[in-house]
Design a protein that fits this description.
Helix 2 runs parallel beside helix 4. The protein has one domain (12-285): Glycoside hydrolase/deacetylase (TIM Barrel, Alpha-Beta Barrel). It has helices at 44-51, 83-96, 102-111, 129-142, 164-172, 191-194, 196-218, 234-242, 276-283; strands at 12-13, 37-38, 63-68, 70-71, 80-81, 98-99, 119-125, 147-150, 176-179, 224-226, 246-248, 267-268, 286-287, 290-293, 299-300, 309-313, 324-327, 330-332, 334-336, 340-343, 352-361, 369-378. Helix content is 26%, strand content 22%. Strands 3, 6, 7, 8, 9 and 12 form a 6-stranded parallel sheet that branches. The longest helix is centred in the middle third of the chain and has 23 residues, at 196-218. Strand 21 (352-361) and strand 22 form a beta hairpin. By secondary structure, it is α/β, with parallel strands linked by helices. The protein binds zinc ion (ZN). Residues 24, 125-126, 180, 184, 228 line the site of zinc ion (ZN).
Length: 387
């Protein structure tokens, strides 16, 4: 990994990065992402300290949502951050960003009202006990709001999981708990085998069962769902929308006015993504205002993308000529016009999760990049998705 160095601000250095082990327990990497490293971060810790007044720089909302799983030295590296490094993240955030609750982000997106500049929301998936032990005290000390997406069917089951007693205590101290399905379901599994109607009935029953437990145990009524493994399709986003749910994925990117509120991206911050030097670029990222995409169904029944994907960008602030799209660890060919970016894939998509990430520098906000991720989910021959 290339580290950020003290270099002149004008020169932008592309550093290749990787991605991603979103498996909840143990894990192999399943997809590859790239991050950009600008030399902006040179001498930036002092600069940033001056930039953190709670003034929005734009009249539209922009935020970054971070995703953690384990906070422990003893859990699978790909989904873990060490307690020491977690403290370093929070300290950095305190000095350089504005931590907002997930509800504030969602409200701003719904009302299209601005958020503080460099707003960041903190989330955890899966409800591990080490959050209570190693993260919660730090977050309380910092005064940071945060959200845990839990599988209510697994709370109190086994020593790795939070207990309901802990959940209730944390909830009383301001922690938000939300839905991650009852039992960490691969929501897209067996869609073809069961047929669409039976499939979505099954899946929705799982979601509403989980929601009922959370509502009852905590006396809340917040309709947020984080898709397990970040896997979703258009039928699910439509179902969520119809039922008043906000949906959260695991593809990367900032959130803004054009984000799909039933598939909001989050940046994983564990494993190799826990490196603070590379995370800084993501924390400063801007939501690429994609007003239209020619490809909108992330679940594919084949491994080829038949047509190029064209993104229409609604912004005067993007240096589109400098857009870069990455897939599977490599830069891919793009065609750019004054307001569109098109990419095509000449390699087959892998089984499971993958994504194309596109980034482009801001014209006016020096050192900041617009970021957009196009996720793909491909089932294996049995119609199922690997962990
Ligand atoms: Zn999960």
């Amino acid at each position: 990994m290339e580290k950020t160095r003290f270099a002149p601000r004008a020169a932008h250095i592309f550093a290749t990065l990787f991605t991603l082990g979103n498996k909840r327990v143990g894990g192999r990497f399943f997809s590859v992402v790239f991050a950009l490293i600008g030399s902006y971060f040179a001498n930036s810790s002092l600069v940033k300290a001056q930039e953190t007044e709670a003034q929005p720089t734009s009249n539209t909302p922009n935020a970054v949502i971070l995703l953690y799983h384990h906070v422990s030295d003893k859990t699978p590296p790909s989904t873990s951050i060490s307690p020491t490094n977690f403290v370093a993240h929070m300290q950095y955030l305190k000095e350089n960003h504005h931590i907002v609750s997930l509800q504030e982000v969602v409200k701003a997106l719904e009302d299209n009202t601005p958020l503080p500049d460099k707003a960041v929301a903190i989330t955890f998936d899966d409800g591990y006990a080490n959050i209570f032990e190693n993260a919660h005290p730090v977050l309380v000390e910092m005064g940071f709001p945060y959200t845990i997406f839990i599988n209510p069917g697994e709370i109190d089951v086994g020593p790795q999981q939070l207990t309901w007693q802990q959940v209730k205590l944390m909830h009383s101290e301001g922690v938000t708990f939300a839905n991650h399905t009852l039992d960490h379901l691969h929501m897209l599994n067996d869609e073809q085998k069961l047929g669409h109607t039976a499939w979505i009935e099954n899946v929705w029953h799982n979601v509403t069962s989980a929601q009922e437990i959370i509502n009852t145990k905590l006396d809340v009524n917040l309709h947020y769902l984080a898709y397990p493994f970040g896997e979703f399709n258009q039928a699910l986003t439509e179902k969520l929308k119809k039922n008043g749910y906000i949906g959260f994925g695991q593809h990367s990117g900032a959130v803004g006015p054009y984000s799909d509120k039933q598939a909001l991206p989050r940046y994983p911050a564990a494993g190799i993504y826990a490196n603070l030097d590379t995370l800084k670029t993501k924390l400063n990222s801007l939501a690429m205002p994609v007003s239209h995409a020619t490809h909108s169904e992330p679940r594919l029944f084949q491994r080829q993308l038949d047509d190029p994907v064209t993104l229409t960008i609604d912004s005067e602030d993007i240096r589109l000529a400098q857009v870069t799209c990455f897939f599977g660890g490599e830069k891919i060919a793009t065609k750019v016009t004054h307001n569109t970016v098109a990419f095509s894939l000449d390699k087959p998509l892998p089984i499971g999760r993958s994504r194309v990430n596109c980034t482009a520098p801001s014209l006016h906000q020096k050192g900041r990049y617009y970021w957009y991720s196009v996720p793909f989910f491909v089932a294996n021959e049995e119609g199922r998705y690997p962990d």
